[in-house]
Amino acid sequence: MRSVHRIVSLFVVLFTLYLGVTGTVIQGVDLRSILTHAPATDPDMMAMREDADGPGVYAVLAPQDFTAQALPPRTDFQLLLGRLLATARSQLGADAMLDFAELRMDGSSPVGRVQAGPRLLTLDFATDHTSIGPVPRRDDHPASLRNQVKSLHRMTTFRRDWLLFINPIVGIAMGVFVVTGVWMYVRLLNARRRARRHEWFWSAGGWWRTLHRWVSVVMAAFLLVVALSGTWLAYESLVFGYYLTAHLPAPGRPMAQPKSPLTPLADAQLPGMLRTSVDAWRNRFGDEPLKVVQLRIYGGMPQGALVFGPGDDTRQVVFNADTGREVSETEPGYPETGFPFGWQAHQYAKQIHRGFFLGLAGRWMGLFSGLSVIFLSVSGAWMYYEMWRQRRRSGRRGLIWA
Fold first, then answer.
1. Torsion of CA 340, 346, 349, 350, to 10 degrees
2. What is the pLDDT of residues 261-308, one digit of tens each?
3. Distance between CA atoms of 24 and 16, rounded to whole angstroms?
4. Alpha-carbon distance 10 to 131, whole Å?
5. How far is the C-alpha of 238 from the C-alpha of 340, rounded, in Å?
6. Which helix (H) or strand (E) holds 31?
7. What does the alpha-carbon distance between residue 329 and residue 392 come to, in Å, rounded to a whole number?
8. Where are the domains of the chain?
9. Suppose 173 and one of 12, 95, 327, 383 were both cysteines; which one would form an S-S bond, judging by CB atoms 3.0 to 4.6 Å apart?
10. Contact, 112 vs 103, CB < 8 A?
């Protein structure tokens, strides 16, 4: 175990240091955004939340929804929907194909919106004012410090497909470090207990070795979670990278526009979709403040996408508008995303890797895990160098030994 631990570290220590530094910076940026209560439109805050609510048009929750007021608690949704559809038909034409119908708050006023191809109609229910304009482009990947460092962390900055293999290999190596390190610690602990030394932490072999051992023991479980979830994400990023490469157009040809996953709606089905979705939301969440209701057919499934909750706790939930079942971001019939286990599994892995499942405490543990990786890489490299220098004095100059 000692030999495996030492030899593997020789080949990946620079990469673990690199990933430790970039991962720690990402966690630091996230914590700064959270602790300083950065606005929802802050680029780093937007980057931290991107993709969590689904790919492309699946995501309804937008930055402005975090500060938006809730729809009035006694809103007659069916009445507003009827007014919206009547206005859409008079303004867009009886034959217009509607991609979605939506009720939401715009400032202090409830508004309705319908999309018909490239056109977006907005109706202010308080004033009956309507406007028709192009569908606004959603910025799914804002330019930010977080996204710059994230690209470095994932090796996508360098635009070389073969570099995507590095992170899965390093993730496996980190798992090996944790397992072999714990194994060696348990053997040392048992040997000390046979000698009637029952301390869990002790000083021996100099401060570098002592601190290396202490940090390893305290952080072992967290580092294993980081290593396993990071390996999962790295593998999915590898597959996703090759998926994108396979779908690039031939040189000199324009990028093909992806087919919309939305199927046109029939006016007659919308009242039933609205009733089923709102009833399912009330049964599941009770009196939470509701901010957005969007009706659509996504990937062949009639859906109600609802946004609710106060402030930073605002979130999105999607129901099957026929059955009332809450659905995930990966369902049969959804368009292909390029991730081998689906979009939802990728988001779960990201939440585990970041420590999001444990809230703010998990974020701090993620930061400490990154700092631990940095320290263990440096201390492990120093101990290796010290051992190599001692062996060299005795005439054994090899860099690798059992």
1. 140
2. 999 999 999 999 999 999 999 999 987 889 999 999 999 999 999 999
3. 12
4. 64
5. 10
6. helix 2-35
7. 57
8. 2-28+148-252+356-393, 63-137+260-334
9. 12
10. yes
* Distance between CA atoms of residues 268 and 52, nearest Å: 32
pTM for the whole structure: 0.88
Percent of the chain predicted with pLDDT > 70? 97
Residue whose C-alpha is closest to residue 216's, from 179, 253, 245: 179
Q: Looking at residue 96, what DSSP letter applies?
A: P
Q: In this predicted model, which residue has the larger pLDDT, 121 or 107?
A: 121
Report how far residue 16's alpha carbon sits from residue 380's, in angstroms, rounded to the nearest whole number: 11
Q: Residue 98, SS3?
A: strand
Looking at residue 296, its amino acid is R
DSSP 319-388: EETTT--EE-S--TTPPP-S-TT-HHHHHHHHHHHHTGGGHHHHHHHHHHHHHHHHHHHHHHHHHHHHHH
| Residue pointed to by tokens 């949704």 | 77
Q: What does the block give as tokens for 262?
A: 């939305």
